[in-house]
Amino acid sequence: MAASTRCCLCLRLRPLKSRLFLVPVQSLRLPPRQARTLWRNASPRTVTVDLGGRKLEISSGRLARFADGCAVVQSGETAVMVTAVSKTKPSPSQFMPLVVDYKQKAAAAGRIPTNHLRREFGSSDKEILTSRIIDRSIRPLFPSGYFYDTQVLCNLLAVDSVNEPDVLAINGASAALSLSDIPWNGPIGAVRIGIIDGEYIVNPTRKEMSYSTLNLVVAGAPNSQIVMLEAAAENVLQQDFCHAIKVGMKHNQQIIQGIQKLMKESGRVKRTPQKLFSAPPEMVKFVNKHAMERIYAVFTDYNHDKVSRDDAINKIRLDIEELIKEKFPEADPYEIIESFNVVSKDVFRSIVLNEYRRCDGRDLTSLRDISCEVDMFRTLHGSALFQRGQTQVLCTVTFDSLESSLKSDPITTAISGIKEKNFMLHYEFPPYATNETGKVTGVNRRELGHGALAEKSLYPVIPKDFPFTIRVTSEVLESNGSSSMASACGGSLALMDAGVPISSAVAGVAIGLIAKNSSNKEGEIEDYRLLTDILGIEDYNGDMDFKMAGTNKGITALQADIKLPGIPIKIVMEAIQQATAAKREILQIMNKTISKPRESRKENGPVVETVQVPLTKRAKFVGPGGYNLKRLQAQTGVTVNQVDEETFSVFAPTPSAMNEAREFITEICKDDQEHQLEFGAVYTATITEIRDTGVMIKLYPNMTAVLLHNSQLDQRKVKHPSALGLEVGQEIQVKYFGRDPADGRMRLSRKVLQAPATNVIKTLSDRSSITMGDTISQSSSSSSQ
């Protein structure tokens, strides 16, 4: 009854509310629930942004009005709807519980899923990677200590196969959160930048991206603050890359202004959270008094490695937690843990900021000790071990046939245009790499993201006409920071060891940031330090993980994870410069181990050869129903694929397998008695098999049986050979009409011999002849193999 009353009230009040949607909610002084109802009944609002001649339309207020925030972003005929919902009660967590899900809908691309139920299942790699980009763009702008379950869902409404939807989804998430009452310090804007013939293109189309040497996604906050960077590039020069970032930030500000206009029209008020989780000042002061000196001693003891340093800090943590419990018996467990973390982080950061020192004794721009080794196991096609400090990565290279390349699902193909790829890098991070236990099944989002970054780093140097599919496997054996960039270095070494003619060696490095915020102006950085080749603890306690890879010439990949609500372009430019210097230093070290690809591949590596099969022998080479090819592949392990009418490509996993395949093919295709057959002559054939469609016959003992179709058995219509009383082993006479010039199959006929004519019957054994009648035209009969 109560529910019915509530619905009726809403219906009666709706016309009045729709007329009031432009009145700022704060002036109405309504309770939060009534304020949300007012927003849900507001009229749709739309803003259009001009991005270098391309229109970006952002609208809200029409769809999904029960969500805390919803926005639809459209470019061309591609439209993405993004919703944001956040609970009003806190979650029992020690971090921001944010979930971002980007889903590719088959209907949006005009397709039907190809699985057995014709429904969307799971998440593809593309969906997961796009979800990660959106998460990294919006997460830094949530208030510190906001531990409320928040979900952002990106739903593809329509895809025109021209405009990419992923960047639209980032802007949609920004608009949905900005227009909601969820506490969020946005908005942000995001664009993709491409470079075609030296021209910088904003939000290039899918076709334009196929010609672009850069694929850069830039997400920025107001006042030209960079929040997230993601890039894949074909050896783009540093100065061109930096200019592309500036172009992207310029257009981001236009998107931000458009969202701010919508915010002003909507008049939504951000909700006040019940609680923002943070350490109590008095508890922090207590920990600082009793633990600061001990923590400082650990962080300035350069004899520690990752494990011993963590053990020493944990010992101090346990001691201090006992003291906190005695001093503050009613303290919450989170407050106890966070109080120690705050002090530990402050001590760590102050050493870097004030003393220009790092916990392992390096200065701010020095690399850790690096060692490289290749050709680890001779049975592998290529292998390398890359060690940087306490980060150790084993990379292996495996070759396979081009047919084993990774095929994209129809939905990804329709959206991105990528049908298959013959180079892939798979990243594995087992729990023992950090002295932990855990499940090792499946691939989590972190592993997928790190592998994709390393793959982007190496892809530009892979030759486009390489005759094999290449799989690089990167297994992290030890981890203390920057394992994805170690994978790029190890993968480059392994490719050269395998004899892949890559255009240049690739190296990668991670740059960290320790920033001090201004006490006068909120959000402004007063002082900062950039750290080269960061440790895991420097990533954890720092403000940025800036990963960049490339060759001596330029940049191939970049990914910036920024924990602050934004950093100035100046800091990003300095980070690129510092990473470039470190990258060159790493390449010099790698070149001492192997400086260029091996002249040839390993002796036990795969082999590809082409075989020319004349049309006259193709039927015999393939065999009935492909029998010979299947037997060849089963016995030798090779893979055979037809290139054109007379050319076949043979892939063998080892040279010995190729040798076996050669002998097999030679035996099948060797010259036999067929050259004695005369066009128009009649021969005695032996039936070897009865089939529904005809009989299999041989004209001589070592011949491959061919099919004499029912249509060529008799002048009458024959449904099954048994109707004529034919049996296995029976001899029949057939006329030979050579081979079909189109497919090379032998053409034989029995029915033409039943017409009154004169012919010569021949057998290969005695060459005897009998007068049977005149010959018949070649076109009147055919036979199938």
UniProtKB/TrEMBL annotation:
Where does this chain mainly localize?
Answer: cytoplasm
One GO biological process term is: mitochondrion organization
Q: Which domain of life is it from?
A: Eukaryota
Q: Where in the cell is it found?
A: Cytoplasm; Mitochondrion intermembrane space; Mitochondrion matrix
Q: Which SMART domains match?
A: KH, S1
Q: Which GO terms describe its cellular component?
A: cytosol; mitochondrial degradosome; mitochondrial intermembrane space; mitochondrial matrix; mitochondrion
| Membrane topology of this protein | Peripheral membrane protein
Q: Which PROSITE patterns match?
A: KH_TYPE_1, S1
Q: Does the keyword Transferase apply?
A: yes
Gene from which this protein is expressed? PNPT1
Q: Which UniProt keywords apply?
A: Acetylation, Cytoplasm, Exonuclease, Hydrolase, Membrane, Mitochondrion, mRNA processing, Nuclease, Nucleotidyltransferase, Phosphoprotein, RNA-binding, Transferase, Transit peptide, Transport
Q: Which organism is it from?
A: Monodelphis domestica
Enumerate the GO terms in the molecular function aspect. Answer: 3'-5'-RNA exonuclease activity; identical protein binding; miRNA binding; poly(G) binding; poly(U) RNA binding; polyribonucleotide nucleotidyltransferase activity
Q: What is its EC number?
A: 2.7.7.8
| Residue ranges annotated for the S1 motif domain, each copy included | 680-751
Q: What is this protein called?
A: Polyribonucleotide nucleotidyltransferase 1, mitochondrial
Q: What is said about its interaction partners and assembly?
A: Homotrimer; in free form. Homooligomer. Component of the mitochondrial degradosome (mtEXO) complex which is a heteropentamer containing 2 copies of SUPV3L1 and 3 copies of PNPT1. As part of the mitochondrial degradosome complex, interacts with GRSF1 in an RNA-dependent manner; the interaction enhances the activity of the complex. Interacts with TCL1A; the interaction has no effect on PNPT1 exonuclease activity.
Q: Which family does it belong to?
A: Belongs to the polyribonucleotide nucleotidyltransferase family.
